[in-house]
Specification:
Strand order of the largest sheet: 2-3-5-8
Structural class: alpha+beta
Order of helices and strands: HEHHEEHHEHHHEEEEHH
Helix content: 55-70%
Distance between the termini: 49 Å
Number of helices: 10
């Protein structure tokens, strides 16, 4: 009877043994792969590149504009000039004058240069605004990276938790399988009943199902992790199950510097600076614009022959001309119907709204830090309690095992001790990674998620 159970469960032990041969994906390697390959981070990087192009000199408005124009025209003339009742000097009738396929062409080209010397300082403030927009885009990319890393570790730690749970259920299955062997021998020698064998078989079945379900969840979690780091979904690996916590003294120091480093607060500051430049850009409409312009042109006209006098055809001619011009202009919109005044007033209101939002963000960040710190401390305490609970249940299980082997407790009592230990171990695994995730969320709020060891 025991043989068929071992055969039915043999593939479970085989797959667990094979998993030990998989490559190890460390936390540092997972972070590196995510930073290099994650789709969201790549898109954020491209947004930064766009903002960098926008803040460059070529988009500043400080460079002149140079345009070239060219043109060509072609004409063909076919004409007949009749002279009725006209005679030549010798008295013969004068013949009609025909001009066939008389071609004329004209060509022209010009270069026009325009440069704005002064535009009410709008160009200057818009250039500074683009610089602030670039810094804001960098902060937005940083926020994307931080959120991606939190997502990465959420899945990474889930893989680690399920890996440890897999080992727990594997050990439980080994113990239950061993119980069947002992129950078979005890039954043969008349030391117990068939019920003990059936109870052991039920426990093996339950432990097998738990192990199978855990292995399926683990495979799904690994595929989720492969998506985040953008590698093949069939890639297999082992993860690091060791967790190190940041010392509390260092954590308190980082919390004290949160207002200077929190990415949400820094974005609010950049938005406020952008709104301030919006006011100055719109106010430039009150001032005049001074510009320079220059032009250089070339023209060539090739005329067709024509009949100028009776009996006389004037041949075609070529005419070439070069022109050069230089000028200055001043434009002052003395009244634009109130459009500039409206823009300035609205931009000032937008600035006030941004100040209000900045105060709100600062208050919300303070709240989030306090909540995250309380959650972290609570989860860390739960983890420490669960660690002690595991030690207690291990001692209880070892004593129950001894008593069971001596026949002093029933298989049901022994199984209960085993279940208590199993629950304690899985609860400890969950508490450990919950505490670490709470710490990472707190580190993100302090703006130091990218500056600490994971």
């Amino acid at each position: 009877m025991i043989t068929k159970y071992i055969a039915a469960l043999g593939f479970l032990f085989l797959t667990v043994a094979l998993s030990a041969q998989e490559k190890r994906l460390s936390k540092e390697e997972a972070v590196r792969l995510a930073l290099e390959n994650n789709f969201g981070i790549k898109v954020a990087g491209n947004q930064v590149r766009i903002a960098d192009n926008n803040q460059g000199l070529l988009n500043s408005g400080y460079l002149p504009s140079l345009t070239g124009t060219a043109g060509a025209n072609y004409n063909e003339l076919n004409s007949t000039t009749a002279y009725p009742d006209q005679f030549n000097a010798d008295g013969t009738p004068r013949e009609d004058l025909d001009i066939d396929h008389a071609e004329s062409q004209s060509f022209n080209g010009a270069l026009n240069l325009n440069y704005t010397l002064f535009d009410g300082l709008g160009r200057l403030y818009n250039y500074k605004r683009l610089k602030e927009q670039y810094q804001l885009t960098e902060l937005q990319a940083r926020e994307t990276i931080e959120n991606t890393l939190l997502q990465l570790f959420s899945v990474y730690f889930e893989v680690a938790r399920l890996t440890e749970n897999e080992n727990v259920f594997k050990q439980a299955l080994e113990i239950s399988t061993d119980r069947i062997t002992r129950a078979e021998y005890a039954f043969e020698y008349g030391q117990n009943t068939k019920l003990d064998i059936l109870n052991a078989q039920v426990d093996v079945t339950n432990d097998s199902i738990n192990l199978l379900n855990t292995k399926q969840l683990l495979a799904n979690a690994k595929r989720d992790l492969n998506v985040i780091v953008n590698q093949s979904l069939s890639e297999t690996f082992q993860v690091d199950t060791i967790v190190r916590f940041v010392p509390r003294l260092q954590l308190d120091e980082l919390i004290g510097q949160a207002k200077e480093n929190n990415v949400t607060i820094l974005q609010a500051e950049r938005n406020l600076a952008i709104n301030e430049y919006d006011i100055k850009v719109n106010s430039s409409g009150y001032l005049p614009t001074i510009g320079l312009n220059g032009s250089y042109g070339w023209n060539l006209n090739q005329s067709a022959p024509n009949s100028f006098l009776p009996g006389q055809v004037i041949p075609g001619s070529n005419r070439t001309s070069l022109t050069f011009g230089l000028g200055a202009s001043l434009t002052w919109n003395l009244f634009d119907g109130g459009r500039t005044s409206t823009l300035v007033r609205n931009s000032k209101i937008a600035y006030e709204n941004q100040e209000i939002q900045q105060e709100q963000v600062a208050l919300e960040v303070d709240r989030d830090i306090l909540n995250a710190l309380a959650s972290y401390v609570n989860r860390l305490n739960v983890y420490q309690i669960q660690e002690q609970n595991v030690l207690t249940n291990e001692n209880n299980f070892e004593r129950s095992k001894e008593q069971f082997q001596l026949g002093r407790i029933t298989s049901i009592e022994f199984r209960q001790a085993q279940i208590n230990l199993l629950n304690a171990q899985t609860n400890k695994n969950l508490a450990k990674y919950d505490a670490k995730l709470a710490e990472l969320q707190l580190l993100q709020l302090t703006g130091q998620l990218l500056n600490v060891d994971f």
